[in-house]
Amino acid sequence: MHLHQAPSTLALFLLLLLTHSARKGVFASVNEKHIQAITSYMDPLVNPCDDYYRYACGNWANVHSNEQYYEVTSLMDHKVNKRLINYFQNYQLEGSAEAGNETYTDKLFLYYQTCRRTKSFQLKRYLQFVRPSVYLDWQLMLEVRNPNATWPAERFNWQFTLAKLRRYHFKGAFFEHILVEDDSDSTRYVIDLDKPTDKLPDAIVIAALLIQLGVKKMRAIEVAKQLHTFENELKVLRRIEDTFGPQPISLYKLQEMMPDMPWQLYLQLVLSYTLKEDYEVQINNRDYFVALINFLRHTKPSLIDNYIMVKFALFLMKNSAGGFTKMDCMWDVRKKMDMAVNFLYKQQFYGGSDAEYIADIERIFNLTRQEFSARLNNNRMKLLPNQLDFLKRKLSAMRFNIGNLPANVNERFIDDYYGEVHINTNDYYKNHLLLLKLRSRKEHDQLTAPTPSPSDYHYISDGDSCTPFYLFRKNLVVIPYAFLQPPAYHIKMHDILKMGIFGFVLTHEIMHGFESSGVLYDFSGMSDWLGSSILSEEEFNISLTCWQYPQTDSIDERIADFLGIRVAYDTLFHPNSSMNARQPSFTDITPRRLFFLTVAQFFCGNLLATFTDHDADDVRLQQTLKQFEAFTLEYECQPGDAMFEKSRCELY
Questions:
Q1: For a 10 Å CB count at each end of the chain, is N or C smaller?
Q2: pLDDT, tens digit, for every residue of 342-354?
Q3: Cis peptide preceding 575, ω within 30 of 0
Q4: Boundaries of CATH 1.10.1380.10 in the chain?
Q5: Whole-structure pTM value
Q6: Which CATH number describes the domain made up of 44-71+355-404+464-652?
Q7: In what order do the strands lie in the sheet with 469-471?
Q8: DSSP designation for 43
């Protein structure tokens, strides 16, 4: 038996010194690397009051000229993909695909591997697996395989075909069928029926797709023209306006309204169980549906079949890996199996426990909410006491979820979640369809599943991204694990750097609960007349008008940017703030300038990206900062400078 001697005082001192030095080294390394990146992206020849985007980000594209990403969030996604690729580099299977006992990590690996083994994209493979019915091929695919065969049109039923395809998450041919939270109960889901928003592309694109499927060129051009004409006829139908808005309706009444459309049987095929006649769905644009059914009654079945097939093929092309490089395939794994990837990321890269990160994020989350609550108390808009209470209750009840995972998630939960999926070791297309089917089933399970507790809720998404997002009806901010890395965040980052990207983006998402769309819902995600009354306040409408200059289609995003940067800034620099806003030792850049430069990093890129729900990155940054007095004071911008706005907008 060996006796352990107590360490000497000198040994203890040296041990503590080494530990402190190591921690200080990590802290310094993270912050110094961030400063190096910031300064490398800057163009110091540009006057910050003339063009702050070029000043802060002007050299970003040159630094990353040889990379596959085009802006900061895609850079972070790229880093996540690389980390996962490295993890699976020497992965050994834990179970057996043949025996059907693969673990969730096995399934991730096998799906990634089958994607990598795929040499070229073969769209036709999908249509071989999924046909209009067991006994009926797609008309054009039968024609390709056997030009002399007669397609049995009497066997084709477009409603049943759409039901079959909806089981693969396809929802946009003649109508959209999605799940939404019930207007009267945000914990309950209902089936929502509406006219579609997706349209066919130009005839030349359709013809190219048909040629890819094996259709001869002249025939492909002929069919493409037919489909293009058909789409134009459908466009006329889609112009029919609905004066009622979304309305609950029983399947019985729906059937009565549209005798040719067997809704009960359609939903039975989608759900694999029968709904009673008094079951209520939600319908929008009911006049469109009636006109559609009458229109299709007089349309050739082969034309309807070709239209559905082309739209389904386009959906699969958009939803597939797109390419089969390591990066393409890992992106695809993240999009198709996001729940499993999020849990793996938590287990492997946060040591199975993210308690330290949660505590720090909770600190930032609570401090920003406190700052915004103080802003509400100032009541610049002169709201009534009950209106103010409405907003404060919502703010107090708001929560965040890291990783979009249930609170008590474990390996068994994830294994069960993917239990019905058995990955084929040699067929990417079959695996893709299996995962689409799982996605659709999990979505529809929400119709009958018990309401999860707020902490166990997870959002069933159509993909994976590193950017946080706010769920209006859940009053919840979801923070992906991919966002918890430099340049956005690191546990050892200085508070100024944390608040620059992470704090600003987090606060931006919190503010979505208080812009024009968000304010309609109360703390539990229900529509409330008090929210509508705030929207009708004169001060609110004056602010909306102010923020519409220059014109934008993304007014709510602009408001969230403006409020986000103000609240993040005040959280950090308020005289009584508990955050560390002192001059950092690792840079000579002053604290406030460092904050603005760090905020700018979120928008840096090569400006090639296009957005449907945001203005361009340079526009967002410029419009946000030129409106902010603290920015113009810090950089001493003067009237007449591009970054000085005389007529500043305010809200709250």
A1: N
A2: 999 999 988 666 7
A3: no
A4: 123-319
A5: 0.91
A6: 3.40.390.10
A7: 399-402, 476-479, 469-471
A8: -
